[in-house]
Write a structure and sequence with these properties.
Elements: E1 3-7, E2 10-13, E3 18-25, E4 34-39, E5 46-51, E6 58-60, E7 68-73, E8 78-83, E9 92-98, E10 110-115
Parallel strand pairs: 2-10
Antiparallel strand pairs: 1-3, 3-8, 4-5, 4-9, 5-6, 7-8, 9-10
Protein backbone atom coordinates (compact mmCIF):
# COMPACT_ATOMS: atom_id res chain seq x y z
CA UNK A 1 0.00 0.00 0.00
CA UNK A 2 1.37 3.35 -1.03
CA UNK A 3 1.45 6.04 1.60
CA UNK A 4 2.71 9.60 1.21
CA UNK A 5 3.25 11.45 4.49
CA UNK A 6 3.77 15.20 4.53
CA UNK A 7 5.44 17.03 7.41
CA UNK A 8 7.14 20.29 8.27
CA UNK A 9 4.21 22.67 8.27
CA UNK A 10 3.50 25.19 10.99
CA UNK A 11 2.74 28.77 11.89
CA UNK A 12 5.17 31.38 10.60
CA UNK A 13 5.19 35.14 10.19
CA UNK A 14 5.14 36.72 6.77
CA UNK A 15 8.64 36.71 5.33
CA UNK A 16 9.58 33.53 7.15
CA UNK A 17 10.56 30.12 5.85
CA UNK A 18 9.48 26.52 6.17
CA UNK A 19 10.74 23.28 4.68
CA UNK A 20 8.18 20.62 3.91
CA UNK A 21 9.01 16.95 3.51
CA UNK A 22 7.13 14.16 1.78
CA UNK A 23 8.17 10.65 2.75
CA UNK A 24 6.90 7.64 0.85
CA UNK A 25 6.31 4.07 1.90
CA UNK A 26 5.18 1.19 -0.24
CA UNK A 27 6.60 2.66 -3.42
CA UNK A 28 9.94 3.81 -4.72
CA UNK A 29 9.53 7.39 -5.85
CA UNK A 30 12.70 7.56 -7.90
CA UNK A 31 10.96 6.49 -11.08
CA UNK A 32 8.25 9.11 -10.90
CA UNK A 33 7.75 12.81 -11.26
CA UNK A 34 6.46 14.29 -8.03
CA UNK A 35 4.55 17.40 -7.14
CA UNK A 36 3.42 19.61 -4.31
CA UNK A 37 -0.14 20.90 -4.19
CA UNK A 38 -2.08 23.05 -1.76
CA UNK A 39 -5.64 23.75 -0.75
CA UNK A 40 -6.68 26.93 1.00
CA UNK A 41 -9.98 27.15 2.93
CA UNK A 42 -12.91 27.42 0.56
CA UNK A 43 -10.76 26.90 -2.52
CA UNK A 44 -9.92 23.99 -4.77
CA UNK A 45 -6.61 22.20 -4.53
CA UNK A 46 -4.01 23.76 -6.80
CA UNK A 47 -0.64 22.85 -8.23
CA UNK A 48 2.40 24.42 -6.55
CA UNK A 49 5.55 22.77 -7.91
CA UNK A 50 6.78 19.63 -9.63
CA UNK A 51 10.06 17.84 -10.14
CA UNK A 52 11.08 15.22 -12.66
CA UNK A 53 12.12 11.72 -11.60
CA UNK A 54 15.81 12.67 -11.84
CA UNK A 55 15.44 16.08 -10.27
CA UNK A 56 16.77 17.68 -13.41
CA UNK A 57 13.59 19.55 -14.28
CA UNK A 58 11.31 21.62 -12.07
CA UNK A 59 8.19 23.69 -12.64
CA UNK A 60 6.36 26.18 -10.41
CA UNK A 61 3.14 28.11 -10.35
CA UNK A 62 3.83 31.74 -11.09
CA UNK A 63 2.98 33.02 -7.61
CA UNK A 64 5.73 30.98 -5.93
CA UNK A 65 8.51 31.31 -8.50
CA UNK A 66 11.67 32.66 -6.90
CA UNK A 67 10.39 31.87 -3.40
CA UNK A 68 9.81 28.10 -3.35
CA UNK A 69 12.24 25.34 -4.32
CA UNK A 70 11.27 21.73 -4.88
CA UNK A 71 13.92 19.04 -4.54
CA UNK A 72 14.20 15.33 -3.97
CA UNK A 73 16.48 12.75 -2.42
CA UNK A 74 15.77 9.48 -4.14
CA UNK A 75 18.04 7.59 -1.76
CA UNK A 76 15.75 8.67 1.07
CA UNK A 77 12.58 8.29 -0.99
CA UNK A 78 11.67 11.83 0.01
CA UNK A 79 10.62 15.02 -1.74
CA UNK A 80 11.04 18.49 -0.25
CA UNK A 81 9.59 21.95 -0.66
CA UNK A 82 11.67 24.83 0.65
CA UNK A 83 9.43 27.85 1.10
CA UNK A 84 11.00 31.27 1.64
CA UNK A 85 9.54 34.78 1.83
CA UNK A 86 6.20 33.31 2.82
CA UNK A 87 3.08 35.41 2.36
CA UNK A 88 -0.33 35.17 4.06
CA UNK A 89 -1.78 33.98 0.74
CA UNK A 90 0.45 30.88 0.99
CA UNK A 91 -1.69 29.70 3.91
CA UNK A 92 -3.09 26.28 3.00
CA UNK A 93 -2.82 22.57 3.58
CA UNK A 94 0.07 21.29 1.50
CA UNK A 95 0.06 17.84 -0.11
CA UNK A 96 2.49 15.84 -2.17
CA UNK A 97 1.58 13.36 -4.88
CA UNK A 98 2.80 12.09 -8.18
CA UNK A 99 2.74 14.57 -11.01
CA UNK A 100 0.27 14.18 -12.54
CA UNK A 101 -1.43 13.26 -9.27
CA UNK A 102 -2.91 9.84 -8.55
CA UNK A 103 -6.28 10.10 -6.87
CA UNK A 104 -5.77 7.36 -4.29
CA UNK A 105 -2.40 8.65 -3.11
CA UNK A 106 -3.49 11.88 -1.39
CA UNK A 107 -2.27 11.97 2.21
CA UNK A 108 -3.37 14.06 5.15
CA UNK A 109 -1.26 17.01 4.16
CA UNK A 110 0.54 19.46 6.40
CA UNK A 111 -0.92 22.80 7.47
CA UNK A 112 1.01 25.96 6.66
CA UNK A 113 -0.25 29.17 8.24
CA UNK A 114 1.39 32.49 7.47
CA UNK A 115 0.46 35.41 9.70
CA UNK A 116 0.67 39.01 8.54
Amino acid sequence: QVQLVESGGGLVQAGGSLRLSCAASGRTLSRFGMGWFRQAPGKEREFVAAISWSGGSTTYRDSVKGRFTISRDNAKNTVYLQMNSLKPEDTAVYYCNHQPPVQGYWGQGTQVTVSS
